[in-house]
Design a protein that fits this description.
It contains 5 helices and 18 strands. It is of the alpha+beta class and 331 residues long. It has 2 domains: 62 residues, no CATH class; 181 residues, no CATH class. Strands 5, 6, 9, 10, 12, 13, 14 and 18 form an 8-stranded mixed beta sheet that branches. Strands 7-8-11-15 form a 4-stranded antiparallel beta sheet, with no helix packed on it. The chain has a 3-stranded antiparallel beta sheet with strand order 1-2-3, with no helix packed on it.
């Protein structure tokens, strides 16, 4: 009787051990190898993943430390399907399709060239910015120049106080004082004035006139005539023509200065009735930098004066004009 009980207990323990072995065989912990995820691993009884072997797979399952090694691929066989990480059991991912030479060329990164434009460097000192709109009405008339070359040409430089001090030190002259009107030619004078038409301070040395300005303030160009003839005034600011705002040239037309009159140029002309006021500002925000990108000629005001063409009379013309139809014949 005792032997029968011991035999039954032994059979029960053997059956329990076989169930535990089957459970350990079906428990799989994925491990990465050269076959990919899911191709090899370590079987333990406490892992969370489940592995369902497919038909034809062989391996050894142990309760502790057992490993699963699939057979190596036979030569000439198709590549083994690879399973992704954390994918459910039984789901296979096909290998990626090989890329041909055309596909590799299509996805090749093309070489591109970029054109880098140099940014305008910051320059100290003053320049003329495009100011607010100011009322200034003009009319059109005819004018014939006596010659292509101007009868008078003057350049007036301007800068802030620090720049003016540096320029006067270079010219070995003290700064600064009240400037008198600069004579362009006999009977024609020019000045840089503020918004109230008061002359700006500065220094004169030989043929150079340097005017001191202040950032944010307005200024203008005042031209006076003490002559009985008409003259044409062509003006430029920072290398730009004051009428069209483009590159200045002596071939362009200007304002007509009446006999014993004056012309007050207060800005760049935008229409027949308005102008954009001249206002001192930084070189980076100047109208020359914004319109042309060139700040080489900032800080300079140019005035050219052309006289009007007047026909000359010879002796024959004078005799014919003085002829009298009812005069007595000479004796």
């Amino acid at each position: 009787m005792a032997r029968t009980i011991i035999t039954a207990i032994s059979m029960t323990l053997l059956a329990f051990t076989g169930c535990a072995r089957d459970k350990a065989y079906h428990t799989y912990h994925p491990k990465k190898s050269y076959y990919g995820y899911g191709a090899g691993g370590t079987a333990t009884s406490g892992t969370a993943g489940r592995y369902h072997p497919t038909s034809g797979a062989s391996g050894v399952g142990r309760s502790s430390g057992g490993t699963y090694r699939p057979p190596p691929p036979s030569p000439g066989a198709a590549p083994r399907a690879r399973q992704g990480r954390n994918r459910p059991s039984g789901v296979t991912v096909p290998p990626p399709a090989p890329r041909g030479p055309s596909s590799a060329y299509r996805h090749r990164r093309r070489e591109t060239r970029r054109i880098v434009r140099p940014q305008p460097t910051h320059r100290p000192g003053l320049a003329t910015v495009f100011g607010e709109r100011v009322r200034s009405r003009v009319s059109f008339t005819t004018f014939q120049r006596a010659r292509n070359r101007p009868d008078g040409l003057v350049s007036i430089h301007y800068n802030d106080y620090r720049g003016l001090v540096a320029m006067t030190r270079h010219l070995r002259r003290r700064c600064c004082g009240t400037l008198s009107a600069y004579r362009v030619r006999p009977g024609i004078t020019v000045q840089l004035v503020d918004s109230l038409r008061r002359p700006l301070r500065g220094v004169q040395l030989g043929g150079k006139t340097i005017v001191m300005g202040k950032a944010g303030t307005r200024y203008g160009i005042l031209v006076r005539s003490y002559s009985s003839q008409r003259h044409e005034i062509v003006a430029s600011v920072d290398g730009l023509d004051v009428i069209d705002g483009k590159r200045a040239s002596l071939t362009k037309r200007g304002y007509i200065l009446a006999p014993y009159g004056r012309v007050y140029i207060r800005g760049f002309r935008t229409s027949r009735y308005n102008v954009a006021a001249f206002r001192f500002g930084s070189v980076r925000n100047s109208y020359a930098a914004r319109s042309t990108g060139n700040t080489r000629n900032v800080g300079a005001v140019g005035i050219a004066v052309f006289s009007e063409y007047r026909p000359t009379y010879n002796t024959e013309v004078l005799r014919r004009l003085r002829a009298r139809p009812f005069a007595q014949p000479p004796r």
